[in-house]
Design brief:
Shape: elongated
Strand content: under 5%
Radius of gyration: 19 Å
Order of helices and strands: HHHHHHH
Oligomer: single chain
């Protein structure tokens, strides 16, 4: 380290690259989409009578609907809260990704149409973009 950095603490802050406005916008838009999908599906699972039929169609027990509702709600909220520790965010990203990919597998196995497989794959792609930009933000912090 040079003496300039030691003598001037603000030089250290300038040395760490901050996320650009574009990166921040991409992060929040993709994260918002994924969180909205998680929270909306949690609401659907809890409030819509058709959710029971959907779980029966997929061959899943009703208690799993309750577990998935709670997990999706907590995961969606965890993605949106900026002050959460990185470890919790990592678990939320993993859990949301797992539920999205599980939807692809469940719909494929039950013989649902291609739209029921493509939709979650698109959301998964958005989820990956959100995670990549999250990691960039963490690396710059």
């Amino acid at each position: 380290m040079t003496t300039d950095v030691i003598d001037n603490p603000h030089a250290i802050a300038r040395a760490i690259p901050q996320p650009t406005r574009k990166e921040t916008v991409i992060y929040w838009i993709t994260t918002g989409i994924v969180a909205a999908v998680m929270l909306a599906s949690a609401c659907f699972f809890y409030f819509a009578p058709a959710a029971n039929e959907a779980f029966v169609h997929l061959g899943l027990p009703n208690y799993f609907r309750v577990e998935l509702t709670v997990a999706k709600a907590l995961g969606g909220l965890a993605l949106l809260i900026p002050s959460l520790p990185s470890t919790i965010k990592q678990f939320a990203y993993f859990g949301c990704g797992l539920t999205i990919l599980s939807a692809v597998i469940a719909h494929s196995a039950s013989g649902d149409g291609i739209a029921h497989v493509i939709d979650p794959l698109i959301i998964f792609g958005i989820h990956v973009v959100s995670y990549v930009y999250y990691r960039r933000r963490v690396a710059n912090a």
